[in-house]
Amino acid sequence: MSAHDPPKANNKEGADDQQQQQKLVCVTGAGGFIGSWVVKELLRRGYRVRGTARDPADGKNAHLLALEGAKERLTLCRADVLDRDSLRAAFAGCDGVFHVASPVSNDPELVPVAVEGTRNVVNAAADMGARCLVFTSSYGAVHMDPNRSPDAVLDETCWSDYDYCKRTQNTYCCAKMLAEQTAAAEAARRGLRLAVVVPCVTTGPALQRALNVSTNHVARYLTGARATYPNAVAAYADVRDVARAHVLAYERPAARGRYLCIAAVLHRAQLMAMLRELFPQYPVTARCEDDGKPMAKPYRFSCRRVKEDLGLDQFTPLRKSLYEAVVCMQRRGHLLPVIQQHHQRASL
Question: pLDDT tens-digit profile of 94-112?
Fold first, then answer.
């Protein structure tokens, strides 16, 4: 059984699973990087899925309609998170809603879009009788606090320092914090079960054709667009694990609150070394922009909740995730292909 296969069930559990999977669920932002994999995972498990998009007929959503099971069990509908009536129409008859859609930008004008959009999603889901809402947050809402001890182990109780994020123009982190807090407050007020998946920098193969922020994070080093790397640390997770965490959070009736989904924490120097080893043909920089200064210390996270409460006990190794992300970008024409060395494949 692969790391991405659900466990086999006995006859009674199988019947319960079959009954559960006949229920209709909705995914906002279905065409995005994480949203697409959530849709794929739901279809793979037999669910009926409704995905929202600003323009369902747009060719950028064609990859969703090509997924296995999409012809029989996937429909796309037009919806805007700022239009509650369109959300009500999208959520009609749905047992669960996955709110993945979110602007990924540091534009201050998008903060109210993220917050009010989340408020509308929660209330529209409650209006239409949904049983559960799974919200996609970000570890940017957890770890951005310069006053926290470097020896601290971060868990679901930790929050970023809002004033620090605002002062340093990390507006995206501000938006995710406010949106998540809005989701929690509104869900509690409406009596809606809320589970929050908190991913980090998400990598792995993309289903959509366009580059997204996470994959571009890797691509810009491979193309030589970045002559230096920052003296910084980041956390990483495979998009397929993040998608599984979403579905498991919906399927577990006791799942509530936040679930950190983090596979590895690396200094950017370690990420560069891994990329150079996997793809030596690319001009990946070996120069730190803070050359000579002490290296930033990697912080630690506890993923106990996602492992014990959701059963996501194995994460895809970052080496495998990066390799498959790069190969995917090559196939899509975002990167010039390189000769694949046998030892690279064998060492994954």
Answer: 999 999 998 888 888 889 9
Better-predicted residue by pLDDT, 150 or 87: 87
Domain assignment of residue 315, given as a range: 12-347
| Beta strand pairing call for 233-238 and 264-267 | antiparallel
The token pair that represents 132 in the structure block: 């559960």
Nearest Cα residue to 262 out of 339, 154, 132, 101:
154
User: Which residue type, as a one-letter code, is found at position 135?
Assistant: F
Chain-wide mean pLDDT for the chain? 90
**DSSP bridge pairs for 76:** 51
The Cα 241–Cα 204 span in angstroms is 10
* CB-CB neighbours of 225 under 10 Å: 11
**Single pTM value for the model:** 0.90
The C-alpha atoms of residue 95 and residue 309 are separated, in whole angstroms, by 21
Please check whether residue 53 lies inside any domain of the structure. yes
Domain count, the chain: 1
**Cβ neighbours around 7 below 10 Å, total:** 7
Residue 3 lies in a domain: no
In a domain, 75, yes or no: yes
Q: Residue 333 is part of a domain; what is its CATH number?
A: 3.40.50.720
Active site residues: 176
Q: Which helix (H) or strand (E) holds 24?
A: strand 24-28
Three-state secondary structure call for residue 34 = helix
* DSSP string of 127-177, one letter each residue: HTT-SEEEEE--GGGTS--TTS-TT-EE-TT----HHHHHHTT-HHHHHHH
Beta bridge partners of 234: 266
Residue 333, amino acid: G
Closest CA to 334 of 161, 212, 231: 212
In a domain, 51, yes or no: yes
